[in-house]
């Protein structure tokens, strides 16, 4: 069978830089079109390192065949094509996460708005520039607002998309963060406590091989060399950055962001350039909320972050002169 998922996993045993702190393992490879890295302290864990590597590989493969919109054999792709499927635990859990984020964000994060993303060329299909009439028509027949809170799974365990009006789902705003969470759950289950899981978005906990809190570079829209890093303080956290400064297209001299507001149906047009969100709940949450921030803009993003004790954030934006400015919540820890 054609191999859809590109996973080439390498395993390295790393010695700790602090005597007695532990023995670290690094697993690297490629999945979901990104290079991934899973680094963890295997001291006190009974599972051999190569077995952990194989389990991580198996998790990535299962996620790809469950939730990838690019893998035409995945449950998600088959569902979007109108095929009756038998959803697994990942498919069901992801649907629930997507629905809760839609409710929480007031519609700003909408995983059932795939036709809108496709219409602007940022989904799974190529598209021409949509007209106002086409956008209006799509808004009337797409979105989580038309779907049930729980999947209508039949007694025999199958799910017929027709029972939901044949929607098309797109989990790009959550998938990489969710993947990091699933791998982190596995590592916790075998007794790992010090870890950094980076599948495009990051979950970390505990200490690095030097016996210090994990440090993650903060991206800058200006393209300048990274000067600051976020530090975890040894606490569990998901960290995600979403931005408009790299993915966009220009038509008739106007720049159109890749961030689509699923409420209006159009690309956003505001001063916020990037949102880095830290969540103590999950990487999927930090992933979705970073997208939420990019949809609603600077002031609303500040409010979202400040009102939730589980969140911290770092925002970059352009002022009225076009200069790049920064905003940080009080608990967002940067060091040079």
Report on this model:
By secondary structure, the protein is α+β, with helices and mostly antiparallel strands. The chain has 3 domains: 10-69 and 177-212, no CATH class; 86-164, T-fold; 223-335, ApbE-like domains (T-fold, Roll), CATH 3.10.520. It contains 8 helices and 16 strands. It has helices spanning 49-67, 75-80, 89-104, 114-119, 132-141, 175-189, 283-296, 298-306; strands spanning 10-15, 23-31, 34-41, 195-198, 202-205, 215-217, 229-231, 237-243, 248-251, 254-257, 260-261, 266-267, 272-279, 311-318, 324-328, 334-335. Strand 4 and strand 5 (202-205) form a beta hairpin. Helix 1 runs antiparallel to helix 6 (175-189). It is globular, with a radius of gyration of 20 Å. The protein starts with 9 loop residues before the first strand and ends with a strand.
């Amino acid at each position: 069978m054609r191999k859809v998922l590109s996973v080439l996993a390498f395993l390295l045993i790393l010695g700790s830089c602090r005597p007695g702190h532990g023995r670290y393992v690094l697993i690297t490879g490629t999945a979901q079109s990104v290079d991934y890295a899973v680094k963890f302290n295997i001291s006190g864990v009974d599972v051999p390192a190569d077995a952990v590597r194989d389990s991580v590989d198996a998790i990535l493969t299962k996620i790809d065949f469950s939730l990838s919109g690019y893998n035409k054999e995945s449950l998600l792709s088959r569902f979007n094509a109108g095929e009756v499927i038998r959803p697994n635990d990942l498919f069901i859990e992801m649907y629930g996460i997507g629905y809760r984020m839609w409710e929480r964000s007031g519609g700003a994060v909408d995983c059932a708005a795939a036709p809108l993303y496709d219409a602007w060329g940022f989904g799974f299909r190529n598209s021409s520039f949509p007209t106002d009439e086409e956008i209006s028509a799509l808004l009337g027949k797409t979105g989580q607002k038309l779907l049930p809170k729980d999947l209508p799974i039949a007694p025999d365990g199958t799910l017929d998309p027709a029972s939901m009006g044949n929607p098309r789902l797109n989990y790009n705003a959550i998938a990489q963060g969710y993947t990091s969470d699933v791998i982190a759950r596995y590592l916790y289950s075998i007794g790992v406590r010090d870890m950094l899981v980076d599948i495009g978005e990051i979950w970390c906990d505990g200490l690095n091989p030097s016996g210090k809190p994990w440090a993650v570079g903060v991206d800058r829209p200006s393209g300048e060399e990274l000067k600051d890093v976020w530090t975890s303080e040894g606490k569990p956290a998901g960290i995600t950055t979403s931005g408009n400064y790299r993915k966009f297209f220009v038509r008739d001299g106007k720049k159109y962001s890749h961030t689509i507001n699923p409420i209006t149906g159009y690309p956003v047009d505001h001063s916020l350039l990037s949102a880095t969100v830290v969540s103590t709940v999950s990487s999927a949450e930090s992933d979705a909320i970073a997208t939420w921030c990019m949809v609603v803009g600077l002031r609303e993003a500040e409010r979202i972050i400040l009102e939730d004790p589980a969140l911290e954030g770092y925002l970059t934006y352009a002022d009225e002169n076009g200069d790049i400015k920064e905003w940080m919540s009080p608990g967002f820890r940067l060091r040079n």
